[in-house]
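hey
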């Protein structure tokens, strides 16, 4: 996997050290995470928060210094489980959620590091802030104590090929660069662009991703899990 990231970086003149590979381990048992950690993987992504908190505890018990990313939608009634063990939250998509995370962070005396999710394809069935509303949203959440706004994330519309994602990645990078130009004085850590998954992560790297989220290529196909999250 790292070799494919390196090759993609060579094609576009980027430094592979700029790219963080997040292994999306949701629904897989901790033993699979432990195996990946033994091979050098550090960053893991989950989207069932109670499962992730349990896996965090197992990692601590085994003295594994892993970095945990929460990926996807987080319901307001699950914010109570969010804690300072999370490295980064990919999926901030409402002011209500921003305030909930901020309250939890202030109470726990930590910063909630977050990426704003953009609905880059304007899909009615997908979460995220519409691109046209992003700057207004950033202004609204910009001074909420307890949050560290560190960039953007998106999931493009499903396509038949990796190349189908390219125009969406390109649009997101343009939006990211424009947001950096305006908001870096307010958000000095606004430097992360999370985009690209198993099917299209190499295209995402070519188009400016700093974080790619890869699951099935690392762990295989997962069984469907019904969880109220």
């Amino acid at each position: 996997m790292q070799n494919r990231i390196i090759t993609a970086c060579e094609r576009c003149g980027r430094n592979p050290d700029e790219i963080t590979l997040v292994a999306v381990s949701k629904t897989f048992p901790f033993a699979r995470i432990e195996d990946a950690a033994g091979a050098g993987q550090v960053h893991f992504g989950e989207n069932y928060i109670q499962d992730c908190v349990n896996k965090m505890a197992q990692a601590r018990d085994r003295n594994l210094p892993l970095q945990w990313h929460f990926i996807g939608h987080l319901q307001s009634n699950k914010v109570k489980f969010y804690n300072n063990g999370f490295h980064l939250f990919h999926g901030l998509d409402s002011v209500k959620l921003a305030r909930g995370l901020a309250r939890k962070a202030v109470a726990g005396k930590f910063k909630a590091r977050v990426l704003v999710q953009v609905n880059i394809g304007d899909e009615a069935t997908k979460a995220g802030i519409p691109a046209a509303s992003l700057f207004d949203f950033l202004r609204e959440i910009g001074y909420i104590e307890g949050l560290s706004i560190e960039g953007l994330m998106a999931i493009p519309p499903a396509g038949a090929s990796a190349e189908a994602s390219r125009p969406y990645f390109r649009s997101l990078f343009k939006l990211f660069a424009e947001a950096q130009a305006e908001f870096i004085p307010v958000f000095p850590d606004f430097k992360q662009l999370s985009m690209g998954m198993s099917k299209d992560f190499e295209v995402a790297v070519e188009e400016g991703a700093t974080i790619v989220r890869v699951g099935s290529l690392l762990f295989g196909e997962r069984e469907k899990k019904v969880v109220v999250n």
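The radius of gyration is 17 Å. Strands lie at 20-24, 43-46, 67-71, 86-92, 112-119, 129-130, 147-153, 192-194, 211-214.
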